[in-house]
Amino acid sequence: MVYKSLHGLAPEYLCSRFVNRDTAYSLRDSKSKANVPLPRTNHYKNSFNYSGAVLWNSLPCEVRQAKSLKQFKQLINGIF
To answer: By three-state DSSP, how is residue 16 classified?
Structure first.
């Protein structure tokens, strides 16, 4: 669902939950990462916003940069 949200394939209320993180530095693993909101409570750490962004950022770079949903599903099935 995070892939769909970041690429505009999900409803607007889900797309507004995830934002791509932009950095001024050109690092190896900084492409296509989601902005992780700062959790102030343990309850928020269990929310979809926080856990979805953390899980998305933990994926390999080539999976996060998939060109289509079909390619993303194939790459993610190869990992798991």
So the answer is: coil
